[in-house]
Design goal:
This protein has about 120 residues and is an all-alpha fold. It has one domain. About 85% of the residues lie in helices and about 0% in strands. The protein has four helices and no strands. The radius of gyration is 14 Å and the shape is globular.
């Protein structure tokens, strides 16, 4: 396996380790979704699927079309946040504004931790 693919798997593990707990905590304590019928397993599965579906896009698709690293991160994260927000809105039955805030916060946490750890 090449170094890039190994780093991708590390990033995926880190993303899941940060975003899934962030989703859970945000939904339970910030958005108070416990009363809305969101079971813990649905939150965890939604976070796992969203990360597994969007991170390859950031690592393998965006770099093929965008040369600038800064633009890769910026454009890629915008698309990821919007895509995950749509997914959360449908799967977790959230309004889009709430799903967008949830996605943006979880991804911001993931990017921040990634920058601190993987640099």
């Amino acid at each position: 396996m090449r170094l890039y693919e190994i780093r991708f798997l590390q990033a995926l593990a880190l993303t899941v380790a940060v975003e899934v707990p962030a989703l859970f905590l945000l939904l339970r304590y910030v958005f108070k979704a416990r009363g809305g019928g969101l079971e813990a397993y649905r939150i965890v599965l939604a976070g796992l699927f969203a990360s597994a579906a969007t991170l390859p896009y950031l690592w393998f698709v965006v770099p093929a079309f965008v040369e600038s690293r800064g633009m890769q991160i910026t454009a890629g994260e915008v698309v990821v946040v919007l895509t995950e927000a749509l997914f959360y809105a449908v799967v977790l039955r959230l309004g889009f504004p709430r799903a967008l805030a949830l996605s943006a916060a979880a991804n911001a946490a993931s990017v921040a931790v990634g920058l601190l750890i993987l640099r």
